[in-house]
């Protein structure tokens, strides 16, 4: 049985931990509101970009000379995976879910005879993938999420991916990220960036087609819109990651704070019982000694 001194030390240690987890929970909650607002504001813009590109691409039909960002290289041999995690831990299963999904995708593609290349975004997924798949990593980027997500990071990443595509370093590019649903739920999601996965046309399902005239022509529009769309999609997922990270951390720290409180109650009860036992034993010794005299 632990001594009273040891129990007091353990109770003090758990109380200190509870203060830290409680403070982290409040910080994450303060960051979450702004991050959630920015992520929600970016979704309609990103969806509108995809719908607009879908209309422009459909108007071109199967014409040749379409940009690589739209149709890719025409092959599917080499896959570039871009997993996106946070730079810090203490966020529950937020990062491990992305790491597990990415690992499953790698093993599946390799089993199909595909070549896999990795461009991890965020320190946690980079550290995880470096252990088993270091030879597949072509580059990595930190600071993908946080209090202020910069569009410049997404723009630079988009230019890097476009440059790799121009050099035919991959055929298919897929983004893996946590889609923020609410504080309790962040869903690991994969989004194909190249070739661009265009949304369906609801009018076509109803037997209707809309005719558009574009100025400048469709090719000129796509050449300008596709690089911007790649940057916008990356930026939107970075905002989703930032919101999801803060939501997951707030939930994890709330759970840790509650568990610390329960641990303090158990230790305090044990401490009181041990103290009472010691007092009782001392009284018995005194009484026994007095009777012996």
TrEMBL record:
Q: Which UniProt keywords apply?
A: ATP synthesis, Cell membrane, CF(1), Hydrogen ion transport, Ion transport, Membrane, Transport
Where in the cell is the protein located? Cell membrane; Membrane
The membrane-topology field of this record reads:
Peripheral membrane protein
Q: Which GO terms describe its biological process?
A: proton motive force-driven plasma membrane ATP synthesis
**Single GO molecular-function term?**
proton-transporting ATP synthase activity, rotational mechanism
Keyword Protein transport listed? The answer is no
CDD domains this protein is in? F1-ATPase_gamma
Name a single GO cellular component: plasma membrane
Q: Which NCBIfam families is this protein grouped with?
A: ATPsyn_F1gamma, PRK05621.1-4
Regarding protein family, the annotation reads: Belongs to the ATPase gamma chain family.
What is this protein's function per UniProt?
Produces ATP from ADP in the presence of a proton gradient across the membrane. The gamma chain is believed to be important in regulating ATPase activity and the flow of protons through the CF(0) complex.
How it assembles, according to the record, is: F-type ATPases have 2 components, CF(1) - the catalytic core - and CF(0) - the membrane proton channel. CF(1) has five subunits: alpha(3), beta(3), gamma(1), delta(1), epsilon(1). CF(0) has three main subunits: a, b and c.
What is the protein's given name?
A: ATP synthase gamma chain
